[in-house]
């Protein structure tokens, strides 16, 4: 409980977006113009607070905080350590850039009354993301996941196009099944241990020595399956390509950058805190299962992406394979693998968001989503396509971009544990990623057809967030030790 | 009765059902009273914000079912609903923040120095329950009204 | 939820599944001969005789969440009906 007044920052990170999410509709009734200003200011405040939180945690160590004035484990506990700070910076930063980007983007797509709903929902999304990230008892995490899911179902459907609504409904059905399974898993855990606090459950599982009993095993299975549905891990990813290809671009960026990452974060944190790494690797061979699933996901995701003709669907399948990389890092089970996996989570989020933003600019100006129509796009929208190309190179993983270091560390970690086949899998998947991205880049810049090209004016307020994120890819590539230094202590604490 | 003025009582095909109307007129106030009771006694007996709020909302839904959507729009305007909704949540969150200002933790009612500790905890809980009840009533009515309108 | 083709029936299946999870929680919280968990001033009751209040809280929160999801699902179904004119998944797939 060190840190004085700064102790309150984690809970403020949750409360402030939630309050503003509810004040925005009131403001929207009287002054529609100011809703945008309020949203940008709030998200900027949350972003800066999370950076401040990171500094404090690095200085003083993890923050543990309890509400209602009663000591844990009886009360609701809030916990913030390095990994929390990293995820908080990532989520709030992405939300800030998305709100900034959305101002011009949704000008023509959504009628005025719904724009207020849009901003309010994004704030709900931010608040629930923060809630999931700092929550230290399993039921708060569940509530956060539910609010996150509900706001993302609505945000995907908010453009009211036919396909968007159908994909949102599909996502709703599958996501609800995932939540129900997760809730059932929580129920089993509660029956056997009688508490909801994460660390307390872990202590009681060890004390009561019920680790091998059927309910605990069942709860493990249920929780893993439920969260895998929500984070689009390979065999349960079916809602993802539809939902991402039909939603508005800023929502796609936020979704693949922040939402899926938060679900993965929850999965890994629950698995490591409640069950412990020994249980997972020896008693139940879960890490082995994750290893194989991640390998298949990496290859099949990229394979599917090569055959897509719609740009956004291609990016969605690419997300499926990148999630495989993160799982590989977790499945390897060593400190290095764990840090490499989360580093890749961070890098992928930034690069994928930049890609979705760039594609969004193209869609905004020309309405083109088919890969074949990207002919000569480089001459029509040079700045956008150059930013796209740099982010694409970042996704593929050439030096000095950020993914190079995370993929290299992943390969190193798997070689370190003697799993040489996964080095091979990483290489193949990278080659496939290069195939579908370079095809697009070549078509837009080096095409040899004679097409009549006129340069289109690219709106500045859309270019700025894209450019910032792309530059962040390069910055975090060269300075990859910055996020890594936040992750190293966590690996020691959790494993 | 003054409350019932200004309400267009003709339903879609021009018929009026006397029995249903009379019963609804008589029974809406007791149900609202019961809902209020559930909300206010939330810290003593099962119930609380959400449950009482839904009971009060059900009276509005009953009204909408019998007298038509236009009348519920007149009686419980959208602006009021949005205001109740937003201030309900804001009140809940700000109560927690008030506790922080008095150097407790979040939602730590024991730190507020107005009354004695027991009474303060009870008072805060009751206030929050009332705010929640109003909010839930507003929201459930909104959901119903929006589902019935064309072109949501 | 998988077998039926009508969208509303799929959603009713989901609601039934959630309700069964709530029943599961209720069963957990039950104790024989227990009293509801409210402090009474007049009688001294030992803490062993109170029923567990925690599952009730979990269930209330989960019910609220289910209501929210139901509301959104209903809104989406209304929109789908307006756009496609049918609620059968086979026909919708044909029209997509």
What is the terminal-to-terminal distance of chain B? 34 Å
Helix content of chain C: 55-70%
What Rg of chain B is obtained from the alpha carbons, in whole angstroms? Answer: 19 Å
Record field, number of beta strands of chain B: 0
Total individual domains of chain C: 1
* Poorly predicted parts of chain B: none
Instruction: Tell me what portion of residues of chain C adopts beta-strand conformation.
Output: under 5%
**Quaternary structure state of the chains depicted:** heterotrimer
Give the number of domains of chain B.
1
Helix-strand category of chain B: mainly alpha
**Sheet with most strands of chain C:** none
What characteristic shape of chain C results from the CA principal axes? elongated
Q: Main sheet of chain B, how many strands, which sense, barrel?
A: none
Compute the average pLDDT of chain C: 75
How many helical stretches of chain B? Answer: 5
- Alpha plus pi helix count of chain C: 3
Estimated radius of gyration of chain C: 21 Å
Low-confidence stretches of chain C: none
Please give the number of β-strands of chain C.
0
Summary of the model, kept short:
The complex is a heterotrimer of chains A (495), B (152) and C (96). Chain A is built from 20 helices and 2 strands. Chain A is globular and about 70 Å long.
How does this model look, in words?
- The complex is a heterotrimer of chains A (495), B (152) and C (96).
- Chain A contains 20 helices and 2 strands.
- Chain A has helices at residues 9-30, 34-60, 82-105, 112-134, 138-156, 162-193, 198-208, 214-231, 239-246, 249-275, 277-283, 286-306, 311-332, 335-366, 377-380, 382-396, 402-416, 420-445, 460-478, 481-494; strands at 63-66, 77-80.
- A two-stranded antiparallel sheet of chain A has the order 1-2.
- In chain A, helix 2 (34-60) packs antiparallel against helix 3 (82-105).
- Chain A is globular, with a radius of gyration of 22 Å.
- Chain B has one domain.
- Chain B has 5 helices and no strands.
- Chain C has one domain.
- Chain C is 62% helix and 0% strand.
- The model of chain C has no long low-confidence stretch (mean pLDDT 75).
- Chains in contact: A-B, A-C, B-C.
């Amino acid at each position: 409980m060190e840190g004085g007044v700064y102790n309150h920052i984690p809970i403020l990170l949750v409360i402030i977006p939630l309050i503003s999410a509810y004040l925005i509709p009131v403001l929207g009734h009287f002054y529609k113009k100011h809703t945008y200003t309020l949203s940008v200011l709030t998200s900027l405040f949350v972003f800066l607070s999370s950076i401040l939180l990171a500094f404090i945690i690095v200085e003083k160590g993890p923050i543990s905080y309890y509400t209602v004035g009663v000591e844990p484990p009886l009360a609701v506990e809030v916990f913030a350590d390095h990994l929390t700070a990293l995820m908080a910076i990532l989520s709030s930063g992405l939300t800030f850039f998305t709100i900034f980007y959305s101002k011009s983007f949704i000008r023509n797509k959504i009628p005025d009354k719904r724009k207020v709903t849009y901003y309010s929902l994004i704030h709900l999304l931010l608040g629930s993301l923060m809630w999931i990230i700092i929550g230290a008892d399993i039921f708060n995490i569940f509530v956060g996941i539910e609010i996150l899911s509900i706001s993302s179902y609505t945000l995907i459907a908010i453009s009211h196009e036919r396909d968007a609504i159908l994909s949102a409904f599909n996502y709703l059905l599958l996501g609800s099944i995932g939540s129900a399974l997760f809730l059932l898993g929580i129920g089993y855990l509660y029956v056997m241990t009688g508490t909801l606090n994460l660390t307390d459950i872990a202590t009681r599982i060890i004390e009561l020595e019920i680790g091998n009993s059927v309910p605990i095993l069942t709860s493990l299975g249920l929780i893993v399956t439920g969260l895998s549905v929500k984070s689009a891990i390979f065999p349960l990813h079916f809602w993802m390509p539809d939902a991402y290809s039909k939603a508005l671009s800023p929502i796609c960026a936020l979704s693949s950058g922040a939402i899926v990452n938060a679900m993965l974060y929850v999965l890994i944190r629950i698995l490591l805190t409640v069950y412990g790494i020994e249980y997972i690797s020896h008693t139940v061979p879960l890490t082995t299962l994750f290893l194989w699933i991640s390998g298949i996901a990496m290859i099949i995701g990229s394979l599917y992406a090569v055959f897509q003709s719609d740009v956004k669907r291609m990016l969605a399948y690419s997300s499926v394979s990148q999630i495989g990389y993160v799982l590989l890092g977790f499945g390897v089970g060593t400190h290095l693998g764990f840090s490499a996996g989360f580093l890749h989570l961070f890098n992928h989020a930034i690069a994928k968001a930049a890609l979705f933003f760039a594609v969004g600019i193209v869609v905004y100006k020309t309405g083109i989503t088919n890969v074949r129509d990207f002919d000569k796009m480089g001459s029509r929208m040079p700045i956008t396509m150059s930013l796209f190309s740099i982010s694409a190179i970042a996704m593929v993983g050439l030096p000095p971009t950020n993914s190079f270091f995370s993929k290299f560390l992943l390969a190193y970690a798997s070689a370190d544990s003697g799993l040489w086949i996964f080095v091979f899998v990483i290489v193949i998947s990278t080659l496939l990623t290069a195939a579908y991205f370079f095809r697009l880049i070549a078509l837009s810049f080096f095409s040899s057809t004679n097409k009549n090209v006129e340069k289109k004016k690219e709106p500045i307020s859309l270019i700025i967030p894209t450019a910032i994120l792309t530059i962040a890819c390069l910055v975090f590539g060269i300075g990859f030790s910055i996020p890594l230094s936040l992750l190293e202590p966590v690996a020691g604490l959790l494993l | 009765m003054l409350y019932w003025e200004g309400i267009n009582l003709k339903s879609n095909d021009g018929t009026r059902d006397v029995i249903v109307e009379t019963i609804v007129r008589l029974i809406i106030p007791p149900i609202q009273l019961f809902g209020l009771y559930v909300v206010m006694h939330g810290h003593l007996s099962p119930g609380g914000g959400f449950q009482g709020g839904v009971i009060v909302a059900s009276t509005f839904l009953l009204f909408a079912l019998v007298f038509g959507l236009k009348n519920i729009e007149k009686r419980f305007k959208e602006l009021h609903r949005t205001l109740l909704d937003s201030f309900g949540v804001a009140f809940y969150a700000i109560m927690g923040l008030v506790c922080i200002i008095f150097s407790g933790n979040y939602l730590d009612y024991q730190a507020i120095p107005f009354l004695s500790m027991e009474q303060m905890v009870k008072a805060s809980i009751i206030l929050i329950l009332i705010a929640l009840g109003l909010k839930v009533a507003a929201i459930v009515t909104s959901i119903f009204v929006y589902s019935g309108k064309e072109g949501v | 939820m998988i077998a039926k083709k009508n969208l509303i029936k799929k959603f009713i299946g989901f609601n039934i599944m959630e309700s069964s999870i709530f029943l599961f929680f209720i069963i957990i919280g039950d104790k024989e001969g227990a009293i509801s968990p409210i402090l009474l001033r007049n009688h001294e009751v030992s803490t062993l005789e109170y029923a567990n209040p925690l599952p009730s809280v979990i269930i209330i929160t989960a019910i609220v969440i289910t209501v929210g999801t139901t509301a959104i699902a209903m809104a989406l179904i209304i929109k789908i009906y307006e756009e496609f004119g049918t609620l059968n998944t086979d026909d919708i797939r044909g029209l997509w």
